[in-house]
Design brief:
Blueprint (H helix, E strand, L loop, with lengths): L2 E4 L3 H12 L8 E5 L6 H9 L19 H9 L3 H4 E2 L4 E2 L1 H14 L6 E3 L1 E7 L4 E6 L4 E6 L1 E4 L11 H8 L3 E4 L14 E4 L3 H13 L4 E5 L4 E2 L11 H8 L4 H11 L4 E2 L1 H12 L3 E5 L3 H7 L2 E4 L8 H8 L20 E3 L2 E3 L5 H4 L6 H13 L2
The structure holds flavin-adenine dinucleotide.
Flavin-adenine dinucleotide binds next to helix 1, strand 2, helix 2, strand 6 and helix 14.
């Protein structure tokens, strides 16, 4: 095998498309290893669960190579051009984005390369990498000349300490991104914890279904921003500024300072307050979540994902080689996004090299371009 891509989410699928479409490999040369049945399964599950109608990112952010690919797809396939986008920024509807994703992955024939399993060991041989993959019933060994780690942190929902305590005490409490999460048959009053876009989507969805029975609790006042990371970080100019920072701690600080984590768009703030005005929803800002829990029958966490350092995680789970890590526990990569010879990273793992946009869809395109151009 020439290439093994570990993780078939947004990042791994984008790189797969780049390798195929830029003619660096054929589907037979690549294996994509992921524990799910289909590509981008977590993306579909999570966005579907909160009934996300539109993406936060603009139409130029998608998993295909050609920048106008999604825009052209919409022009041909959208039944209603008006509702295809949310304004401003031409944010595409999730349905069209997913249809375009499916069409692109069919073109590149990703299922020919799909291996359902989880990487549990990665070891360097003289001129290749040895992978041991847990396929549920058995373990299999593969060899690849190049390996790309495209795993994020989205398998691990973030459970605050107080929530674990409530769960132990018998409260009906779950995280919206738990594998087993189901919204059906949840009894009110419902308390939703988390002030970001996930919490906002969920609050509106629940308030629609059960008006007057839903409270959204956030630590601070709702924070408004068009994007989690300002789109200017995609510009050449900002990229050059970032690349001139040679200290990884400084890079980490910059990433933390420019990310508007837990923020929502103006449109969502407006919708939330409309729902409050109509009596369907209550919003409260508090640090005393346990007290609020006492008043609710059901508690749903919308508190994002764990922020474990991804490089340290790889080293402690499957990576059997010593590889350079920054103080913050993330890989130190070269310009080609290589961690070790022929071992590449993309997405969250490439954050220190690619900058603040690395984890999102635009980052997947940027990371894929970097890798493919270096070949
Ligand atoms: C609700 C929601 C809405 C979002 N909206 C936007 C948006 O509008 N625009 C935008 O740009 N971004 C958005 N994002 C953010 C971002 O695009 C996603 O988080 C993105 O899916 C991250 O991609 P990924 O490939 O790193 O992770 P994932 O999609 O989680 O894929 C990683 C895959 O790797 C697999 N994996 C993990 N460990 C192993 C292993 N050892 N072996 C094999 N496979 C493994 C996982 O099971 C998973 O399938 C959104 C995120 C969420 C949750």
């Amino acid at each position: 095998m020439k290439w093994a891509i570990i993780g078939g989410g947004v990042q791994g699928c984008t790189l797969f498309n780049y390798l195929i479409k830029m003619k660096k490999a054929s589907a037979e040369d690549i294996c994509v290893i992921d524990p799910h049945n289909d590509p981008m399964e977590l993306w579909r599950q999570y966005t579907g669960r909160i009934s996300m109608s539109y993406l936060r990112s603009p139409v130029s952010h998608h998993i295909d190579v050609f920048n106008a690919s999604l825009e052209q797809f919409v022009a041909i396939h959208a039944d209603d051009k008006e509702s295809a986008f949310s304004q401003p920024y031409d944010r595409p509807s999730l349905s069209l984005f997913n249809q375009h994703t499916q069409k692109t992955l069919q073109e590149t024939q990703i299922m020919k390369s799909w291996i359902k399993g989880r990487l549990i060991s990665l070891k360097r041989l003289t001129d290749s990498w040895q992978l041991i993959v847990d396929m549920t019933q058995s373990q299999e060994m593969f060899k690849a000349n190049n390996v790309v780690l495209a795993i994020g942190n989205s398998e691990k929902p973030n459970w605050p300490e107080w929530a674990r305590t409530e769960q132990k005490a018998g409260k009906d409490i779950s995280h919206v991104f738990d594998q087993s999460f189901k919204l059906e048959n949840k009894k009110g009053p419902i308390l939703i914890c988390g002030g970001g876009l996930t919490g906002a989507h969920l609050a509106l969805k629940c308030a629609d279904a059960s008006p007057g029975n839903v409270t959204l609790a956030t630590r601070q006042a709702l924070k408004v921003s068009d994007f989690e990371t300002d789109l200017s970080w995609l510009s050449e100019e900002k990229d050059q500024i970032y690349q001139q920072i040679h200290c990884y701690e400084e890079r980490r600080n910059l990433i933390s300072s420019v990310k508007e984590k837990g923020s929502i768009t103006v449109a969502f703030k407006k919708s939330l307050y409309q729902s409050v005005a109509s009596g369907a929803l209550s919003i409260t800002h508090t640090n005393a979540f346990s007290e609020l829990c006492a008043k609710a029958k059901t508690v749903i966490l919308a508190t994002g994902f764990q922020s474990n350092p991804l490089g340290t995680e790889c080293a402690s789970t499957f990576l059997k080689e010593k590889a350079p890590l920054s103080k913050c526990g993330y890989p130190i990569l070269d310009r080609k996004l290589q961690w070790l010879p022929n071992l590449y990273c993309i997405g969250g793992l490439a954050e220190l090299e690619l900058g603040p946009i690395s984890r999102n869809i635009a980052g997947a395109k940027r990371g894929s371009e970097r890798i493919v151009k270096s070949l």
